[in-house]
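Weekly structure sync, notes
Attendees: PL (lead), two postdocs, one rotation student
Agenda item 3: pending single-chain targets
PL asked that the sequence for the first pending target be pasted directly into the notes so everyone works from the same version. It is reproduced below exactly as submitted, 132 residues in total.
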Amino acid sequence: MNDIHMGHCLCGTVRFRTTGKLREVIACHCNQCRRQTGHFYAATNVKNEDLELEGADNVGWYRASDAASRGFCKTCGSALFWKGDGYGYTSILAGAFDGPTGFKIACHIYCADKGDYYEINDGAPQYEQNYR
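Predicted structure, written out during the meeting:
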């Protein structure tokens, strides 16, 4: 996926534009992702230098673990980003992009933590923990 993609939070205060290659969407079912979003976390990612932010001063960062932070809009609370320490990319929630996106879920990770109220039945590979 090498096209330009744009998106924003619910209220539009934070807007972004990606110009580089996007990774396929990965669905994370870990406890942190489910608690932050109310369901599972479906995200792509882009190299940091290929991400342009408008309203970056309105992005709050929550230190969710010793290894990563989660970015959200301070106005409307939309979950938007995930950044691992020392990584050269930013994960962006797929639902924040303007459509149509052409995105497809490539795999599901941390399925051992999946909520008991839904099934994963889209045919994409499922991993008990991470896929790496």
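Discussion points:
- The beta strands are 5-8, 15-18, 25-28, 41-47, 51-54, 59-63, 68-73, 79-84, 89-93, 105-109.
- The two ends are 21 Å apart (CA to CA).
Action: rotation student to compare against the earlier draft before next sync.
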